[in-house]
Design brief:
Rossmann fold
C-alpha cells in the first residue's frame, strides 16, 4: 500500500533563528553522509585487529564530441585523473549500464579472453558485505553495484497550469528509463514528500506520479538537501533529476551549500526547468552552475516537446556515463579537493569531459576491533 510520507522542511529551523546552513552541512558530512567508506585491515596481533576507513572516490564521467554525441568504448588508460594536481590511479572502471570492474580484472579479461572454464574475477562486483569485520579483499569495492535515480517533482503552486502535462512527461521518462536498478519519486512544494521509495517496480513509481497534487510555495533547495541526505544512504551510482516550474521562493538553504554537498557525495543533479532561461536569469544561472559542477546538465524547456527532449537527454546521459573509482593518493589537504579529468591518446583533445569538479573528504579514522569488542 502506498503512503505519502512527509519530510517537512521545518526541521531545518529551531524555535528561534534558523540553523546556519553551513553548520548543517558540516553535521551531515561528519555524521557519515558522505558515501563510500571502505575498511582495510592494517594489522592483526592475536585477537586485536586494526581497521582504517579508506574513502573510494567515485566519478561519473560523460565524454562527448563537438556535436554532443557520446564517445563510447574508451578504456581506463584513456583517462588521466588528478586531485589537487596529484596523479591518481584508477581502481575500478565501468561504462554505461554495465557493471563496473576492478582494473586488475579487466587486465586479466583482456589478456586471456578465451581462457577455458569460468573466471571468477570477471564476475560483477560483489554485493555489499553485511559486516565490515567479515569483509574480504575481494569485496572491498562493493559500493559499485546498482544505480539509483531520485526524481524530484515540483508540485508547488507554480505548477497549477501544466500539472497534468508535467505528470505525463515524468511518467514517460520513468517508462523508458531501463538502466537504473531503482527509482524513487519525490514531490516538493514547501515540504518534501516521498511519493514512492526507491524501488525497481516501475508500476509502483508510476502510481506515485499520479498520486501527486499541486500545493504551496516552492522550497526547492530545502527539499534538495533532504533528497541528497536520502541519496547519501546508498552506495553505487546515484543521480537526482529535478523537474521545476519556477524559482525557489521558500528555502532557507542557499544553493551553494547544496552544490557542495552534491559534489562531495558524488550525486550529479539534472535540472529541467519549464521556464525560459531569459525570463528567470538568476534561477537559470543557479540551475546551470549546480548541474555543471556536479556532473549533470540543465535544460530549459518552454513546451512539452522540449520537456520530452530534455528527459531523453538525461536518459541517454545515464546510459553512456563512465563510472571511475580510485583510492586517493596521500594528500595533506583535508578541505576542498579539486578534481581534474583529462583524456589521453591521439585526437582525444577534441572531446569534452563532464564530471564533478571536486569534493570534501570525510575524516579518516582507525578502529581497534579488539578494544571495540
Amino acid at each position: 500500500m502506498l503512503r505519502d510520507t512527509p519530510l517537512h522542511a521545518s526541521p531545518l529551523q529551531t524555535k528561534g533563528a534558523p540553523m546556519p546552513t553551513r553548520l548543517l552541512l558540516s553535521v551531515l558530512i561528519l555524521a557519515g553522509v558522505l558515501a563510500g567508506p571502505l575498511f582495510r585491515t592494517l594489522a592483526q596481533d592475536g585477537a586485536t585487529k586494526f581497521r582504517v576507513e579508506v574513502q573510494l572516490v567515485q566519478l561519473d564521467v560523460a565524454v562527448t564530441d563537438g556535436q554532443g554525441n557520446y564517445v563510447t568504448s574508451l578504456k581506463p588508460e584513456n583517462f588521466s585523473i588528478t586531485e589537487d594536481r596529484i596523479a591518481q590511479k584508477i581502481a575500478v572502471f565501468g561504462e554505461g549500464n554495465e557493471a563496473a570492474r576492478r582494473i586488475s580484472d579487466l587486465a586479466v579479461q583482456t589478456a586471456a579472453p578465451s581462457s577455458p572454464g569460468p573466471a571468477p574475477s570477471d564476475a560483477p562486483i560483489a554485493a555489499a558485505p553485511t559486516s565490515p569485520a567479515d569483509s574480504s579483499a575481494a569485496q572491498m569495492v562493493s559500493p559499485l553495484a546498482g544505480a539509483n535515480v531520485f526524481i524530484l517533482f515540483d508540485t508547488s503552486n507554480y505548477m497549477y497550469r501544466g500539472f497534468v502535462f508535467a505528470q505525463d512527461a515524468i511518467a514517460d521518462f520513468i517508462r523508458t528509463l531501463d538502466g537504473p536498478d531503482r527509482i524513487a519519486l519525490y514531490s516538493y512544494s514547501r515540504d518534501l514528500y516521498r511519493a514512492t521509495q526507491l524501488t525497481p517496480d516501475r508500476v509502483q513509481v508510476l502510481r506515485g506520479v499520479r498520486s501527486t497534487t499541486a500545493g504551496d510555495d516552492a522550497a526547492l533547495y530545502n527539499c534538495l538537501l533532504l533528497t541528497l541526505k536520502d541519496a547519501a544512504r546508498y552506495t553505487g551510482r546515484r543521480a537526482i533529476v529535478v523537474f521545476s516550474n519556477g524559482p525557489d521562493n521558500a528555502s532557507m538553504v542557499p544553493p551553494e551549500d547544496i552544490r557542495e554537498l552534491a559534489q562531495s557525495i558524488a550525486v550529479p543533479i539534472y535540472m529541467i526547468s519549464t521556464r525560459e532561461a531569459r525570463l528567470e536569469p538568476i534561477s537559470s544561472a543557479v540551475f546551470a552552475r549546480m548541474s555543471a559542477s556536479t556532473g549533470g546538465q540543465a535544460y530549459f524547456a518552454k513546451n512539452w516537446q522540449e520537456e520530452q527532449r530534455a528527459f531523453a537527454g538525461i536518459r541517454d546521459d545515464l546510459a553512456h556515463t563512465y563510472a571511475i573509482y580510485y583510492y586517493p593518493e596521500a594528500n595533506p589537504n583535508n578541505g576542498w579537493r579539486a578534481i581534474t579529468v583529462k583524456l589521453v591518446g591521439p585526437k582525444m583533445d577534441k572531446y569534452r569531459v563532464r564530471t564533478r569538479s571536486g569534493y570534501r573528504p570525510r575524516p579518516v579514522r582507525s578502529v581497534d576491533e579488539g578494544a571495540a569488542q
